[in-house]
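Recap from last week: sequence in, structure out.
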Amino acid sequence: MSSPILNPEALERRTWHYIQSPAHFEVAACSCGNADTQWSEFRHHVWCDPCQKDFVPEHNGVFDGPIPIGVATMLGLNFDRFNMETGKVERLNHESAQYEDAAHV
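Predicted structure tokens:
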């Protein structure tokens, strides 16, 4: 079951989020049934627009277990992310497993 946040001031804010939505990674839908959620501004939470709430998903899809990056890529998953502090896209370098500024890749 999804649990709503209780005290936003006590939560840690994200500094980045993946470019692909939580649904691409098979993150659990909201308790209302909406699977078209977005990354919340708070770590470990997603946002349900119809309910207007941040919530902790029941499960984290592919993030709940080990997933080889090559296999994930073949399945169409993209781990590039948007850096909310700089406003830039960061691409995952599969060889170094480090993020790089997409403008310089």
